[in-house]
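User: I'm new to structure prediction. If I give you an amino acid sequence, what do you actually give back? Let's try with this one:
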Amino acid sequence: MRAFNPRFTQFTAMLAVLLALSGCGSGEQSPTSPKNTEIPTGELVFRMNCAVCHEMRPGSFRSLADLTAGSKHFSSRESFSEFLRHPGPPGMPAFRPKELSDADIAALYDWLKLETGN
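Assistant: Good question. You get back a string of structure tokens that encode the predicted 3D arrangement of the chain. For your 118 residues, that looks like this:
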């Protein structure tokens, strides 16, 4: 049995990334693809910071659609920002400004309002 070789693992990981990126950035767009495929900033903030614990689908465990419905923390951008900065026990971690900027929180709030209809 061979011993674990970290250099081989690093090489394999780098090769996988290079292969994955080799098709990116060609500048050509498929005729069937939508013209604007950019993901909204609020959705990216959600995917990178919230989706680990929350889902969007109503009725799912810790669903943001359900949690935001009628919540005092979701009544304004300011109250939402305050909640994200100081969520209180128990549960969610606080997001410091270096983790989520004010602009990130505003984009997240706007996107959640649009997505949830709350």
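You can read the tokens as a compact description of the fold. Here is one thing that stands out. Residues 25-35 have pLDDT under 50 and may be disordered.
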